[in-house]
Design brief:
Oligomer: single chain
Radius of gyration: 23 Å
Shape: globular
Distance between the termini: 53 Å
Number of helices: 12
Strand content: 15-25%
Number of domains: 2
Bound molecules: ligand LLP
Order of helices and strands: HEHEHEHEHEHEEHEHEHEHEEHEEEEEEH
Largest sheet: 9 strands, mixed
């Protein structure tokens, strides 16, 4: 965890709003997984959609990590950063023919999640190797919007379509080298992970898919967001995952690689959004602290009712009071925290919004024409990577350059 003094010094040096990432924690989280899941063929492909900061990704690349990518942009970024193509898996949703061709040409493993795309591939690309994404038929996640398995989502091929899959594979002489599932983000129950694994392993027989090299069980490992929230016993979970996978490889007849694609687990707790309070207001019953960031820069509270802990870095011992911590965007929902007890907030205090490492910057935008914050990565106690913030002038010039009146 980064300390208060360092965060305050960074806010002063790089100005707010500012994302700060603890690069050492990100790498430690990646490495921890190999301790939790002691299966020799374990491979971790970090979900790049959670955080595509080039400084953080470079640390993960050097630690040996792979990447889970979901768009041609992510694949191009991963390759430009020097991730070998063998360490990249591509799992797009509803990809276009052009996207398919573009990514196929790079040589990364294509993970196909619909019969509709598989039918096209069998006709147009006979003989290629690919991975198939199935819907594990298990519903779990920290929010209805982040549950991926089950009937109500757009993801994966249904398990009961396996015969149709096999005939398309035969027709196109395709080589299925991997099977994939992703149950959801922020999985609440260890049992869901095991059940999804079992559901995928049940169809991963040598009769159905004789050429398998790996099974990929997606991401979803949960981390605590609220103070006092229990941390999952990943040692116990990892042992159970290993036990079940080893039993599966016995049945399959040879060892396969086991992949996971964590995003939140790797990045969430390593990130802080630092924001300065510029306005204090009492609106009858509500005490409002208004700051210099807003929901386009950290959208999780608005989109998922997500809880993010807030620290008052510059007045940690102030007398506690209850605040709405609001942003600088012209919308009522623009709140990082509602009715939250915090040490007294004064004008110009610096707040840190915790767990801002996953799905915060990466889901950001420039609504109200405010540029995204700068980002810094800290490792070994010093800043090792800086991505600066565009000035308002630069942001506008960029937009003006993109279009022309006809
Ligand atoms: N693999 C696949 C195929 C995925 O779709 C995802 C996340 C992951 C791996 C990584 O899941 P994680 O380990 O991060 O839970 N924006 C939401 C989360 C959306 C996750 C989308 N897919 C949030 O902020 O809670």
């Amino acid at each position: 965890m980064l300390n208060r003094e360092l965060l305050l010094a960074l806010a002063k040096e790089y100005d707010t709003p500012l994302f700060v990432y603890d690069g050492d924690m990100v790498v430690a989280r990646y490495r921890d997984l190999f301790g939790f899941i002691p299966y020799p063929g374990l491979k971790i492909c970090c979900a790049m959609k959670a955080n595509y900061n080039p400084g953080l990704l470079a640390l993960l690349r050097d630690a040996g990590a792979g990447l889970d990518t979901v768009s041609p942009g992510e694949v191009i970024m991963a390759l430009k950063l020097g991730f070998p193509k063998e360490r990249i898996i591509y799992t797009a949703n509803n990809m276009t023919d052009e996207e398919f061709e573009q990514v196929l040409a790079t040589g990364v493993v294509m993970n196909i999640g619909s019969l509709s795309r598989l039918r096209k591939i069998a006709k147009t690309h006979p003989g290629i190797s690919l991975c198939l994404r199935f819907n594990p038929d298990v519903c779990d996640g920290d929010n209805a919007k982040t549950m991926t398995g089950g009937d109500l989502t757009k993801f994966g091929i249904l398990l009961e379509s396996v015969e149709e899959v096999k005939s398309l594979v035969r027709e196109g002489n395709l080589k299925v080298i991997g099977l994939h599932e992703h149950t959801g983000s922020g999985l609440q129950r260890a049992e869901s992970v095991y059940q999804s694994m079992e559901n995928l392993m049940a169809i991963a027989t040598p009769e159905n898919f004789p050429d398998l090299q790996f099974l990929d069980f997606g991401g979803g490992f949960k981390v605590p967001y609220k103070p006092g929230e229990a941390r999952i016993d990943y040692v116990a979970m990892g042992a159970e995952i290993t036990r079940r996978f080893e039993a599966f490889t016995q049945r399959y007849g040879r060892k396969l690689d086991m992949l996971f694609e964590p995003g939140k687990y790797i990045f969430a707790e390593a990130g802080y959004l630092l924001t300065e309070v510029n306005t204090l207001k009492r609106n009858r019953s509500r005490l409002i602290a208004g700051c210099d960031s807003g929901f386009p820069q950290l959208i999780r509270p608005v989109l998922y009712d997500a809880y993010h802990e807030v620290w008052n870095l510059s007045n940690p011992d102030g007398k506690p009071q209850v605040y709405d911590v609001c942003g600088n965007i012209c919308e009522t929902g623009d709140r990082f925290a509602e009715q939250r007890e915090l040490p007294e907030i004064r004008e110009y205090d610096i707040l840190a919004i915790r767990n801002a490492g996953a799905y915060c910057y990466s889901m950001g935008g420039v609504y109200n024409l405010r540029a995204m914050p700068a980002e810094v990565v800290v490792s070994g106690g010093k800043v090792v990577y800086v991505r600066r913030r565009l000035s308002s002038e630069e942001l506008c010039d960029q937009i003006l350059k993109e279009g022309r009146s006809l």
